[in-house]
Amino acid sequence: MLRNVLPVIVVCFFAVACEKIEPADPVPLIGFKDLTVADTYDTIGDEPIEVKACELVFTFVDGDGDIGLYDDPYDSIDPRNVFIIPFEKLEGDYFRNGELDTLSFWIKHDEKMDRVGQNKTLKGEIKVKFSYFKELLSDFDTLKFDFYIIDRAEHQSNVESTFDVSLK
């Protein structure tokens, strides 16, 4: 009887002990979570300059877990992997304004994000802080930002958008 029960116990043990593999696309999927905007000052020079400080928070899922660039970003084709595109709202429509450039940032690879085994899917949250000089925004009433990321395999995620940000 023990001979018949032992294989069943072993199979049950391995079924419980193994981590469930979550199939996910190797192309990153991002989702907008929050955007905060605050008036503050930047002290680059001798005198403080008024700025709009922003913090963008978004989630991501990457099936092959290759988010983040290694220590030397210039080993890559492009050392930037987060892109934030500002849009001005005029009469209900959004337009790119030449005064506001696309912002780009570098997500650094962290060894804590490395996955061992078959399940390489990586999920998380990314926070990006940036600011604009307030005088640069004086002509705008409302902005929104589109954003996306690129992983090490150069897969571009979907493009997400923030809510409207009133600047007045």
Task: Give keywords.
168 residues; 3-stranded antiparallel β-sheet; 10% helix; mainly beta; single chain; Immunoglobulin-like; 6-stranded antiparallel β-sheet; 1 helix
Q: What is the beta-strand fraction?
A: 35-45%
Radius of gyration over C-alpha positions, nearest whole angstrom: 22 Å
Structural class: mainly beta
CATH class: Mainly Beta
CATH topology: Immunoglobulin-like
Number of H- or I-type helical stretches: 1
How would you describe this structure to a colleague?
With 168 residues, the chain is mainly beta. It has one helix spanning 2-17, and strands at 29-42, 49-62, 82-90, 93-95, 103-105, 122-133, 142-149, 160-161, 165-166. Helices cover 10% and strands 40% of the residues. The strands form two sheets. Strands 3, 4, 5, 7, 8 and 9 form a six-stranded antiparallel beta sheet that branches. A three-stranded antiparallel beta sheet has the order 1-2-6, with no helix packed on it. Strand 1 (29-42) and strand 2 (49-62) form a beta hairpin. The longest helix is centred in the N-terminal third of the chain and has 16 residues, at 2-17. The chain is globular, with a radius of gyration of 22 Å. Residues 5-17 have low confidence and may be disordered.
